[in-house]
Amino acid sequence: MQRDVVVSDPAAAGSSSSAASFAETRVICRVCQKQFAQYTCPRCNSRYCSLPCYKGHSLQCTESFMRENVMDELKQMQPEDESKKKMLDILKRLHLEEEMESDGEDEPMLSEELIQKVMSGEEIKLEDLSDDEIKRFRQALASGELSKMIEPWTPWWKTPSARSIPLSPDGIQLIRQVNTKGTATSDPMTDQEPSINEIPEGPESPLPSLKQLTRAEPSPLLAVHLVDILYSYCFTLRLYNGDWHSDPLGASTVALSMSKVMGEDAKPETVPEALTACIEETCSPAYRHTGGFRLAIGLVEDIITILSLGHNALVCALSDFHQLIEAGKRMLKAEKVGKTQSTQSSSKLRGAARKLFFMTCWVHEQPGEAWPPLARIVEVQKASLEELDTGNCKADKKSKQQSKVLIEEL
């Protein structure tokens, strides 16, 4: 075992007091072996003198952290696990609802004429439709039938350019799109909408250090809360097909309803707890038409992808999310809504914007090796979800086969 190197300060050599001499004793940094150690690693108790030396020793520390967490997650993946029971309940509920709805789907919800109008891009007004067409149109909106006519969006985090996002040390993106109109203001109601396949530009100004934002130590649960926030971000962008600029207020409302951390000030303590709450909301009646449990598994894969891309992609994603919430705040202020409703919504959006900005600054200060362990923990949960989904599908298939045989015998 390596021992700490202890050096006595010469200034204390002539002191007759043993207590004073002990106070002047210093420990040499275990990384560079040159400077006095002023700090102690909370995980391995190694003594170090500066941030570079901390980063120099932290790889081994991080790998140990990853192994411990992944093994803990694997141990938790038992049939008695509460999160697994919740997932099974969600799958059973979805299966029953799909069976009930399938009985009334013999005819399409939209008429051929209405489908042609939608496909051609023709403007459709409710007053131009019959009562029956209005009913069918609203049913198609609620069921997601209209979304099948929209060309699928490729998320920016799945493009090759996402692997090499250039950010400066203070978090600003080095390559930014030039506004040819020369407008200095940013208004989602008037500005030209950016291409929805482009990488988000990242923070517009240098990110401050956490010490400038708060005197308190950051919560050790921030990594878990990051998973919740990334899920909400990916869900919102997929729901709006990548174009949240078309309705910032609506997108903000969706984001807050999906993220329990931002919308309800929840503080999940584990990754399974955070994901379970998000997936339960995805499979709720309000959003089940978007894809249900299969979409949820895809969103977990999105989280893994962004975490695997690393520091710069995370900063850009959180910055884009922060801009979305800020645009929602401005739109809410411009719209005429009830004073009570406006105050409540505005307060929630302000709180969400503050959390997102703090999370962006926190992520910016973390070492690059912090994200692979978190990605692997989420991968463990994804494997568990896929196992549940596969088992549920096999059970449904077996049940249908047994029902078919009984009918034939009768």
UniProtKB/TrEMBL annotation:
PROSITE patterns: ZF_HIT
Metal-binding among keywords: yes
Entry keyword annotation includes Zinc-finger: yes
Alphabetical list of Pfam families matching this protein: SHQ1 (PF04925), zf-HIT (PF04438)
Keywords on record: Metal-binding, Zinc, Zinc-finger
UniProt GO MF annotations: zinc ion binding
Domain HIT-type: 29-61
Chain segments carrying region Disordered: 181-203, 391-410
Compositionally biased region (Polar residues): 181-195
Protein name: HIT-type domain-containing protein
